[in-house]
Amino acid sequence: MHIHLFRNARRWDSCLVPIDDTTFGMILQFKVRLVRVEPNTRFFMGETFATGNGMLHDTYGHFHLDRWDDHEWENYKDRFVNVVQRHWSDKFILDPNKDWHVPRTTSPRNSATIQCGLSIQLVDSSSQAHQTYRIIHPRESTFRSYVEEFNRTGVFTHNDLEPHWNDRLTRIGSENHNVSFLQTTVNHEFGHTLGLNHVKGVGNSDANYGVTLSERENQMGMGGLLTPRHAQPWITRLRNHLIPQTHYDTTVSFRGRVASPQLIEYWDNDWRPAAPAAS
């Protein structure tokens, strides 16, 4: 197997570097521009636009824009990097289906695993950036933040770095329960930047965010639970780093797994304790 250590691309750069004889690190590297949207800012992104009169217009309504305080803006930028990296970096390990790596030592070929990392560098211009996000400060709380993966852009609000609760009817067994799910919007939207769709496919209908409890609690549903499926961006990117040299190499594949336990971040509001067994 021939290994390319570094690759550049429009959506993100990446590197695959050896950590030791049995472990590699695969890091997706993003250069991100965060654009500070003020009441007098003008921009047009399809059906989302502002004309500089203090209002933002969108499919879901009209929103009053407040000014950013300088300290608040700098804090937002720092926290954006920390929140996204903390959630997505070092959360997956890729396991090969067979031995594939021949270390430089005298060790035989082995089945080295790959640790999945993610890094974000903030840049000042769109020409430098892989992704450009506009950050608004609306008075209303009903704006629906979004990412346009194909345009490498998106619109977020000042509240999107905070976890928030969503209540949804959710199928548990044969019944529908009112369940509260905890999710941080920017982490869900960054999943779209990585190329991940909603848990039940492309679209913004309620069903696309899941129906059952396991679907709803998914990061690409209503919750924050990461699953092996979310390692797919790293697996896909490996094709640019691992170049088969033999037929044996072409039969090597990788499967993702979540690297550590996760918190349960939902609450079933209709849960009731089981009745005591009859004596």
Automatic annotation (TrEMBL):
InterPro entries found in the cross-reference section: MetalloPept_cat_dom_sf
The superkingdom of the source organism is Bacteria
Name under which the protein is recorded: Peptidase M10 metallopeptidase domain-containing protein
